[in-house]
Amino acid sequence: MRLHLRRLIPGRPGAVPLVLVHGFTGDTTTWDALAPHLDPRRPAAAVDLVGHGRSPGPEDPAAYTMRATVAAVVATLDAAGIARAHWLGYSMGGRVALRLALDHPDRVVSLALVGASPGIDDPAARAERARTDAALADGILSAGLEAFVDRWMADPLFATQARLGAARLAASRAQRLRNRPHALALTLRGMGTGADAAVTDRLAGLAVPTLVVAGAEDGKFCAIAAAMAARIPGARTAIVPGVGHAVHVEAPAALADVVEAFLADVDPV
Questions:
Q1: Rounded Cα gap, residues 161 and 250, in angstroms
Q2: Can you give the residue ranges of every domain in the chain?
Q3: How many whole angstroms separate alpha carbon 220 and alpha carbon 214?
Q4: What CATH class does 5-122+196-266 carry?
Q5: What is the pLDDT of residues 27-44, one digit of tens each?
Q6: Taking a C-beta distance cutoff of 8 angstroms, is the pair 265, 39 a contact?
Q7: Cα separation of 170 and 168, whole Å?
Q8: H-helix or E-strand spanning residue 46
Q9: Per-residue pLDDT reduced to its tens digit, 83-92
Q10: Is pLDDT above 90 for 269?
Q11: How far apart are CA 207 and CA 197, in angstroms?
Q12: pLDDT tens across 188-214, in order?
């Protein structure tokens, strides 16, 4: 399966591109605030994950597993002629980028993870998260997409986004409502944090330059970022002050600064 790929920055011919991967309920437009702050010399593109944005949203649950999603992303880049790239993934998109780096290291020049985790190590906790995600999936189909989006945006994880103001929040809500209910439900069941085994024990073998980012007001993921960086050889950590989970939405310029500083060391344009 091929996914929708959107070119954000043309960049210079021959430069290694940056590929951006959004989080759950997002799409390529969620990077629009970040793109103007990125180095214009480096090509950049964003991908809509399966069931999100303009990508296919099949009815087959098998299309929504992590393995199938990574395969679809690789096929999409093959079709676009992108053999190797820098990767920037947020939340669920960070888990996709991390798995791609572990399974296809030849496709990854560097890896930047924002508000991402390697999964849940404890089997009981993972099973409980799978039950929670399944209940959320059932709720999407029974109560409707609008009720789910309102519930999702009210999660304490996103509380700091209230500072963005009513207009920005309304735009974010409208974007999420463009998703297809069945696809979001299948994503939760097939690729939620509880659906897949953690890859924590593989982090020591990650052989690409890695940057792990979290918002300073997202305590849970600050701790996860520190734990991940301690396991990944040579990994860097960046904690962005004054923001929560969605750093690229709340502080796009600050995120661009840390990502571009990282990329400048890894692969100057």
A1: 7
A2: 5-122+196-266
A3: 9
A4: alpha beta
A5: 999 999 999 999 999 999
A6: no
A7: 5
A8: strand 44-47
A9: 999 999 999 9
A10: no
A11: 20
A12: 999 999 998 999 999 999 999 999 999
